[in-house]
Design a protein that fits this description.
The structure is a single chain. The protein is α+β, with helices and mostly antiparallel strands. The protein has one domain: Cytochrome P450 (Cytochrome p450, Orthogonal Bundle), CATH 1.10.630. The chain is about 45% helix and about 15% strand. It has 14 helices and 12 strands. The protein has a 5-stranded mixed sheet. The radius of gyration is 20 Å and the shape is globular. The structure holds 6-O-methyl-beta-D-galactopyranose. 6-O-methyl-beta-D-galactopyranose binds next to helix 9.
Length: about 375
Protein backbone atom coordinates (compact mmCIF):
# COMPACT_ATOMS: atom_id res chain seq x y z
CA UNK A 1 0.00 0.00 0.00
CA UNK A 2 1.14 3.50 -0.73
CA UNK A 3 2.08 5.57 2.24
CA UNK A 4 -0.13 8.53 3.09
CA UNK A 5 2.81 10.85 2.66
CA UNK A 6 3.72 9.54 -0.78
CA UNK A 7 2.99 11.79 -3.73
CA UNK A 8 3.45 9.89 -6.96
CA UNK A 9 4.29 11.72 -10.17
CA UNK A 10 1.44 11.53 -12.66
CA UNK A 11 3.37 13.47 -15.33
CA UNK A 12 6.39 11.18 -15.66
CA UNK A 13 5.58 9.34 -18.88
CA UNK A 14 4.16 12.28 -20.82
CA UNK A 15 7.01 14.53 -19.66
CA UNK A 16 9.50 12.06 -21.11
CA UNK A 17 7.59 11.17 -24.29
CA UNK A 18 6.22 14.57 -25.29
CA UNK A 19 7.05 17.24 -22.74
CA UNK A 20 3.61 18.83 -22.92
CA UNK A 21 -0.04 17.98 -22.59
CA UNK A 22 -3.34 19.62 -23.40
CA UNK A 23 -5.96 20.19 -20.71
CA UNK A 24 -9.35 21.81 -21.07
CA UNK A 25 -10.25 24.52 -18.59
CA UNK A 26 -13.67 26.15 -18.95
CA UNK A 27 -13.28 26.06 -22.76
CA UNK A 28 -10.02 27.99 -22.60
CA UNK A 29 -7.55 25.12 -23.11
CA UNK A 30 -4.10 25.09 -21.57
CA UNK A 31 -0.92 23.45 -22.87
CA UNK A 32 0.89 22.23 -19.79
CA UNK A 33 4.68 22.38 -20.09
CA UNK A 34 6.20 19.54 -18.14
CA UNK A 35 10.01 19.70 -18.40
CA UNK A 36 12.15 21.83 -16.13
CA UNK A 37 14.20 23.38 -18.96
CA UNK A 38 11.08 24.45 -20.90
CA UNK A 39 9.34 25.75 -17.80
CA UNK A 40 12.35 27.91 -17.01
CA UNK A 41 12.77 29.13 -20.56
CA UNK A 42 9.15 30.23 -20.84
CA UNK A 43 9.11 31.78 -17.36
CA UNK A 44 11.95 34.05 -18.48
CA UNK A 45 10.42 34.99 -21.81
CA UNK A 46 7.65 37.39 -20.78
CA UNK A 47 7.53 38.93 -24.25
CA UNK A 48 6.08 35.72 -25.71
CA UNK A 49 4.53 34.31 -22.52
CA UNK A 50 2.74 37.18 -20.82
CA UNK A 51 1.35 37.46 -17.31
CA UNK A 52 -0.38 40.75 -18.14
CA UNK A 53 -3.40 39.07 -19.68
CA UNK A 54 -7.05 39.52 -18.68
CA UNK A 55 -7.11 39.31 -14.85
CA UNK A 56 -7.60 35.73 -13.71
CA UNK A 57 -6.64 34.15 -17.02
CA UNK A 58 -3.10 33.08 -16.07
CA UNK A 59 -4.49 31.14 -13.12
CA UNK A 60 -5.44 27.52 -13.82
CA UNK A 61 -8.36 26.98 -13.26
CA UNK A 62 -9.06 30.37 -14.81
CA UNK A 63 -10.62 32.97 -12.52
CA UNK A 64 -11.86 35.30 -15.30
CA UNK A 65 -15.48 34.58 -14.42
CA UNK A 66 -15.13 35.44 -10.76
CA UNK A 67 -12.81 38.42 -10.61
CA UNK A 68 -11.86 41.57 -12.44
CA UNK A 69 -9.22 42.97 -10.14
CA UNK A 70 -5.67 42.54 -11.43
CA UNK A 71 -3.39 40.90 -8.88
CA UNK A 72 -0.18 42.91 -8.53
CA UNK A 73 2.68 42.30 -9.27
CA UNK A 74 1.60 38.77 -10.29
CA UNK A 75 -0.45 39.81 -13.35
CA UNK A 76 1.98 42.32 -14.83
CA UNK A 77 5.06 42.05 -17.06
CA UNK A 78 8.32 43.99 -16.88
CA UNK A 79 9.05 46.86 -16.88
CA UNK A 80 5.86 47.73 -14.95
CA UNK A 81 6.07 44.49 -12.97
CA UNK A 82 9.50 45.48 -11.66
CA UNK A 83 8.31 48.90 -10.47
CA UNK A 84 5.48 47.44 -8.41
CA UNK A 85 7.54 44.56 -7.15
CA UNK A 86 10.26 46.94 -5.98
CA UNK A 87 7.73 48.68 -3.71
CA UNK A 88 7.21 45.56 -1.63
CA UNK A 89 10.36 43.48 -2.13
CA UNK A 90 12.05 44.68 1.09
CA UNK A 91 8.85 44.34 3.10
CA UNK A 92 8.53 40.71 2.04
CA UNK A 93 12.08 40.03 3.23
CA UNK A 94 11.19 40.93 6.85
CA UNK A 95 10.58 37.24 7.68
CA UNK A 96 14.37 36.79 7.69
CA UNK A 97 14.81 39.19 10.63
CA UNK A 98 15.43 37.52 14.02
CA UNK A 99 12.53 39.41 15.72
CA UNK A 100 10.12 38.21 13.06
CA UNK A 101 11.41 34.67 13.44
CA UNK A 102 11.00 34.86 17.23
CA UNK A 103 7.36 35.94 16.86
CA UNK A 104 6.76 33.09 14.45
CA UNK A 105 8.35 30.62 16.85
CA UNK A 106 5.93 31.79 19.56
CA UNK A 107 2.91 31.31 17.26
CA UNK A 108 4.00 27.86 16.12
CA UNK A 109 4.91 26.67 19.63
CA UNK A 110 1.49 27.68 20.96
CA UNK A 111 -0.31 25.81 18.18
CA UNK A 112 1.79 22.67 18.75
CA UNK A 113 1.28 22.82 22.51
CA UNK A 114 -2.48 23.07 22.05
CA UNK A 115 -2.41 20.12 19.66
CA UNK A 116 -0.45 18.08 22.20
CA UNK A 117 -3.30 18.39 24.70
CA UNK A 118 -5.79 16.75 22.31
CA UNK A 119 -6.58 13.06 21.93
CA UNK A 120 -6.57 13.66 18.16
CA UNK A 121 -7.13 16.59 15.84
CA UNK A 122 -7.74 17.44 12.21
CA UNK A 123 -4.65 19.02 10.71
CA UNK A 124 -6.08 21.10 7.83
CA UNK A 125 -8.73 23.03 9.78
CA UNK A 126 -7.32 22.90 13.29
CA UNK A 127 -3.59 23.20 12.72
CA UNK A 128 -2.51 24.32 9.25
CA UNK A 129 -5.21 26.96 8.68
CA UNK A 130 -4.75 28.72 12.05
CA UNK A 131 -0.97 28.50 11.63
CA UNK A 132 -1.11 30.06 8.15
CA UNK A 133 -3.55 32.78 9.26
CA UNK A 134 -1.67 33.75 12.40
CA UNK A 135 1.64 33.81 10.56
CA UNK A 136 0.09 36.09 7.94
CA UNK A 137 -0.59 38.74 10.59
CA UNK A 138 3.20 39.04 10.92
CA UNK A 139 3.64 39.54 7.20
CA UNK A 140 1.01 42.30 7.20
CA UNK A 141 2.33 43.58 10.54
CA UNK A 142 -1.09 43.78 12.17
CA UNK A 143 -2.46 42.44 15.50
CA UNK A 144 -2.80 38.67 15.71
CA UNK A 145 -6.52 38.86 16.52
CA UNK A 146 -7.23 39.62 12.83
CA UNK A 147 -6.48 35.97 12.09
CA UNK A 148 -9.75 34.89 13.77
CA UNK A 149 -11.69 36.47 10.91
CA UNK A 150 -9.54 34.87 8.22
CA UNK A 151 -9.74 31.43 9.78
CA UNK A 152 -13.52 31.55 9.34
CA UNK A 153 -13.06 31.91 5.57
CA UNK A 154 -11.69 28.38 5.23
CA UNK A 155 -8.82 27.03 3.21
CA UNK A 156 -9.18 28.68 -0.19
CA UNK A 157 -10.27 32.20 -0.94
CA UNK A 158 -11.61 31.58 -4.45
CA UNK A 159 -12.81 27.99 -4.05
CA UNK A 160 -15.23 26.29 -1.70
CA UNK A 161 -16.43 22.79 -0.95
CA UNK A 162 -19.41 23.29 -3.26
CA UNK A 163 -17.78 24.90 -6.29
CA UNK A 164 -14.31 24.98 -7.79
CA UNK A 165 -14.70 28.73 -8.38
CA UNK A 166 -16.81 30.64 -5.92
CA UNK A 167 -17.49 34.32 -6.65
CA UNK A 168 -19.52 34.85 -3.47
CA UNK A 169 -16.67 33.63 -1.38
CA UNK A 170 -14.20 35.90 -3.15
CA UNK A 171 -16.53 38.82 -2.43
CA UNK A 172 -16.04 38.30 1.30
CA UNK A 173 -12.30 38.86 0.91
CA UNK A 174 -12.81 41.79 -1.47
CA UNK A 175 -15.18 43.61 0.90
CA UNK A 176 -12.85 42.93 3.79
CA UNK A 177 -9.85 44.38 1.94
CA UNK A 178 -11.86 47.47 0.85
CA UNK A 179 -12.72 48.07 4.48
CA UNK A 180 -9.14 47.63 5.64
CA UNK A 181 -7.88 50.10 3.03
CA UNK A 182 -10.41 52.70 4.24
CA UNK A 183 -9.35 52.06 7.80
CA UNK A 184 -5.68 52.52 6.95
CA UNK A 185 -6.52 55.81 5.21
CA UNK A 186 -8.33 56.99 8.34
CA UNK A 187 -5.71 55.64 10.75
CA UNK A 188 -2.28 55.10 9.19
CA UNK A 189 -0.02 52.62 10.97
CA UNK A 190 3.08 50.59 10.26
CA UNK A 191 1.27 47.85 8.36
CA UNK A 192 1.35 46.74 4.73
CA UNK A 193 -1.80 48.70 3.81
CA UNK A 194 -0.20 51.95 4.96
CA UNK A 195 3.03 51.15 3.14
CA UNK A 196 1.04 50.71 -0.07
CA UNK A 197 -0.98 53.88 0.53
CA UNK A 198 2.26 55.86 0.75
CA UNK A 199 3.94 54.14 -2.20
CA UNK A 200 4.41 55.70 -5.63
CA UNK A 201 5.08 54.38 -9.11
CA UNK A 202 6.40 56.92 -11.62
CA UNK A 203 5.64 59.71 -9.16
CA UNK A 204 2.01 58.65 -8.77
CA UNK A 205 0.31 57.17 -5.71
CA UNK A 206 -1.24 53.74 -6.19
CA UNK A 207 -5.01 53.64 -6.75
CA UNK A 208 -7.19 51.80 -4.23
CA UNK A 209 -7.80 49.21 -6.94
CA UNK A 210 -4.05 48.60 -7.25
CA UNK A 211 -3.61 48.33 -3.49
CA UNK A 212 -6.47 45.87 -3.46
CA UNK A 213 -4.67 43.91 -6.20
CA UNK A 214 -1.56 43.53 -4.06
CA UNK A 215 -3.55 42.59 -0.97
CA UNK A 216 -5.68 39.97 -2.73
CA UNK A 217 -2.51 38.30 -3.95
CA UNK A 218 -1.04 38.43 -0.45
CA UNK A 219 -4.11 36.71 0.96
CA UNK A 220 -4.77 34.21 -1.84
CA UNK A 221 -1.28 33.25 -3.03
CA UNK A 222 0.03 31.91 0.26
CA UNK A 223 -3.07 30.31 1.66
CA UNK A 224 -3.84 26.83 0.31
CA UNK A 225 -0.17 26.49 -0.66
CA UNK A 226 1.09 26.92 2.92
CA UNK A 227 -1.77 24.83 4.26
CA UNK A 228 -0.87 22.00 1.88
CA UNK A 229 2.78 22.25 2.77
CA UNK A 230 2.11 22.13 6.51
CA UNK A 231 -0.37 19.26 6.27
CA UNK A 232 1.84 17.23 3.94
CA UNK A 233 4.81 17.77 6.22
CA UNK A 234 2.91 16.37 9.20
CA UNK A 235 1.94 13.32 7.13
CA UNK A 236 5.57 12.85 6.12
CA UNK A 237 6.90 13.13 9.66
CA UNK A 238 4.21 10.73 10.87
CA UNK A 239 5.51 8.07 8.52
CA UNK A 240 9.19 8.96 8.95
CA UNK A 241 9.82 9.40 12.67
CA UNK A 242 13.56 9.11 12.00
CA UNK A 243 13.36 12.48 10.25
CA UNK A 244 12.00 14.03 13.45
CA UNK A 245 14.94 12.55 15.37
CA UNK A 246 17.42 13.81 12.84
CA UNK A 247 16.02 17.32 12.88
CA UNK A 248 16.19 17.33 16.65
CA UNK A 249 19.83 16.26 16.65
CA UNK A 250 20.94 18.19 13.57
CA UNK A 251 18.85 21.36 13.44
CA UNK A 252 21.18 22.86 10.87
CA UNK A 253 19.80 20.60 8.15
CA UNK A 254 16.35 22.24 8.49
CA UNK A 255 16.89 24.68 5.61
CA UNK A 256 17.85 21.87 3.25
CA UNK A 257 14.92 19.74 4.41
CA UNK A 258 12.52 22.60 3.71
CA UNK A 259 13.77 22.80 0.11
CA UNK A 260 13.49 19.06 -0.41
CA UNK A 261 9.98 18.84 1.01
CA UNK A 262 8.75 21.80 -1.00
CA UNK A 263 10.25 20.28 -4.16
CA UNK A 264 8.59 16.97 -3.48
CA UNK A 265 5.17 18.36 -2.48
CA UNK A 266 5.13 21.27 -4.95
CA UNK A 267 2.11 22.85 -3.25
CA UNK A 268 1.25 24.88 -6.35
CA UNK A 269 0.88 22.59 -9.37
CA UNK A 270 1.20 25.22 -12.08
CA UNK A 271 0.72 28.82 -13.18
CA UNK A 272 -0.30 29.94 -16.63
CA UNK A 273 0.88 32.43 -19.20
CA UNK A 274 -0.89 33.73 -22.29
CA UNK A 275 1.01 33.39 -25.57
CA UNK A 276 1.40 36.70 -27.41
CA UNK A 277 2.50 35.33 -30.81
CA UNK A 278 2.47 31.99 -32.63
CA UNK A 279 5.31 29.98 -31.17
CA UNK A 280 6.73 26.52 -30.48
CA UNK A 281 7.57 24.66 -27.30
CA UNK A 282 9.17 21.20 -27.57
CA UNK A 283 8.34 21.13 -31.27
CA UNK A 284 4.73 21.74 -30.46
CA UNK A 285 2.99 24.69 -32.14
CA UNK A 286 1.18 27.08 -29.83
CA UNK A 287 -1.13 29.74 -31.24
CA UNK A 288 -1.18 33.39 -30.24
CA UNK A 289 -3.72 34.19 -27.49
CA UNK A 290 -3.83 30.61 -26.22
CA UNK A 291 -2.70 29.57 -22.76
CA UNK A 292 0.24 27.53 -21.52
CA UNK A 293 1.03 26.51 -17.98
CA UNK A 294 4.39 26.22 -16.30
CA UNK A 295 3.99 22.98 -14.42
CA UNK A 296 6.25 23.37 -11.39
CA UNK A 297 5.06 20.05 -9.96
CA UNK A 298 6.17 18.14 -13.04
CA UNK A 299 9.40 20.10 -13.49
CA UNK A 300 10.34 19.27 -9.90
CA UNK A 301 10.35 15.55 -10.73
CA UNK A 302 12.38 15.92 -13.91
CA UNK A 303 14.88 13.04 -13.76
CA UNK A 304 17.26 14.83 -16.12
CA UNK A 305 17.86 17.31 -13.28
CA UNK A 306 16.99 15.57 -10.00
CA UNK A 307 18.57 12.27 -9.05
CA UNK A 308 15.87 9.83 -7.91
CA UNK A 309 13.23 12.55 -8.15
CA UNK A 310 10.46 10.49 -6.52
CA UNK A 311 12.42 10.03 -3.34
CA UNK A 312 12.58 12.48 -0.45
CA UNK A 313 16.29 12.78 0.19
CA UNK A 314 17.03 14.91 3.24
CA UNK A 315 20.65 15.12 2.11
CA UNK A 316 19.95 16.19 -1.46
CA UNK A 317 22.67 18.66 -2.37
CA UNK A 318 21.75 19.83 -5.87
CA UNK A 319 18.15 20.96 -5.70
CA UNK A 320 17.32 23.67 -8.24
CA UNK A 321 13.56 23.20 -7.78
CA UNK A 322 10.95 25.61 -9.04
CA UNK A 323 8.32 25.10 -6.34
CA UNK A 324 8.39 28.88 -5.76
CA UNK A 325 8.38 29.62 -9.47
CA UNK A 326 11.29 30.97 -11.47
CA UNK A 327 12.58 34.26 -12.86
CA UNK A 328 11.18 37.73 -12.20
CA UNK A 329 7.84 36.36 -10.96
CA UNK A 330 9.35 33.98 -8.42
CA UNK A 331 7.28 33.85 -5.25
CA UNK A 332 7.33 37.09 -3.29
CA UNK A 333 6.12 35.26 -0.20
CA UNK A 334 8.89 32.67 -0.36
CA UNK A 335 10.91 34.17 2.53
CA UNK A 336 7.83 34.05 4.71
CA UNK A 337 6.93 30.53 3.55
CA UNK A 338 10.45 29.20 4.09
CA UNK A 339 10.63 30.72 7.55
CA UNK A 340 7.28 29.14 8.50
CA UNK A 341 8.49 25.78 7.24
CA UNK A 342 11.81 25.90 9.03
CA UNK A 343 10.29 27.06 12.31
CA UNK A 344 7.63 24.37 12.06
CA UNK A 345 10.13 21.56 11.44
CA UNK A 346 12.33 22.57 14.35
CA UNK A 347 9.46 23.18 16.77
CA UNK A 348 7.94 19.80 15.95
CA UNK A 349 11.29 18.05 16.36
CA UNK A 350 11.69 19.65 19.78
CA UNK A 351 8.25 18.92 21.14
CA UNK A 352 6.89 15.90 19.32
CA UNK A 353 8.28 12.37 19.50
CA UNK A 354 5.85 10.78 17.06
CA UNK A 355 2.78 11.56 14.99
CA UNK A 356 0.09 8.95 14.43
CA UNK A 357 -2.21 9.21 11.43
CA UNK A 358 -5.75 8.18 12.40
CA UNK A 359 -7.62 8.99 9.23
CA UNK A 360 -7.00 10.80 5.96
CA UNK A 361 -8.82 11.98 2.86
CA UNK A 362 -6.56 12.96 0.02
CA UNK A 363 -7.07 16.06 -2.11
CA UNK A 364 -6.70 15.02 -5.74
CA UNK A 365 -6.63 17.58 -8.53
CA UNK A 366 -7.66 16.59 -12.04
CA UNK A 367 -5.85 18.08 -15.00
CA UNK A 368 -7.08 16.38 -18.15
CA UNK A 369 -5.49 12.94 -18.20
CA UNK A 370 -3.57 13.61 -14.99
CA UNK A 371 -4.66 13.06 -11.44
CA UNK A 372 -2.39 14.78 -8.99
CA UNK A 373 -2.43 14.53 -5.23
CA UNK A 374 -1.71 17.97 -3.87
CA UNK A 375 -2.49 17.46 -0.21
CA UNK A 376 -5.35 16.41 2.03
CA UNK A 377 -8.94 17.50 2.46
CA UNK A 378 -8.73 15.99 5.90
CA UNK A 379 -5.94 14.52 8.00
CA UNK A 380 -6.68 13.28 11.52
CA UNK A 381 -3.63 12.73 13.68
CA UNK A 382 -2.39 12.40 17.21
CA UNK A 383 0.79 13.96 18.54
CA UNK A 384 2.92 12.06 21.05
CA UNK A 385 4.97 14.51 23.07
CA UNK A 386 8.60 14.20 24.05
C1 LIG B 1 -3.59 33.65 -7.33
C2 LIG B 1 -2.61 32.54 -7.13
C3 LIG B 1 -1.22 33.06 -6.91
C4 LIG B 1 -4.99 33.10 -7.47
C5 LIG B 1 0.97 32.30 -6.60
O1 LIG B 1 -0.35 31.99 -6.81
O2 LIG B 1 -3.00 31.77 -6.00
C6 LIG B 1 -4.26 31.16 -6.16
O3 LIG B 1 -4.50 30.42 -4.99
C7 LIG B 1 -5.34 32.21 -6.30
O4 LIG B 1 -6.59 31.59 -6.51
O5 LIG B 1 -5.93 34.15 -7.57
O6 LIG B 1 -3.54 34.54 -6.25
Amino acid sequence: MMKKSEFSDPFQKVRLDQGHSQVNDQNDPVTMLLRLADVRKCAKNWQTFTSAAQPGRIVVPSEVNIREVRQIPFELDPPLHTKYRDLVEEWFKRPQHPEYEAQLVAIVNTIIEQALTKERFEVVEDFALPLQSKALTLLLNIPQAAADTWIKWGVHVFRSEETALDGDKAAILYDYIDEQIEQAIATPSDDLYTLLLNAEVDGKKLTKEEIKGVMILTFAGGRDTIINYVTNTLAYLAEHPAALERLKNEPKIAGRVVEELVRYFSPLTHIGRVVTEDTHVCEHAIKADSRVSLCWASANRDASVFKEPNKIDLDRKRNPHVAFGFGHHKCLGAHHARQIMKVLLLALANKVRAIEIQDAKENIEEWGQFERKVGFDRLEVRFLGR
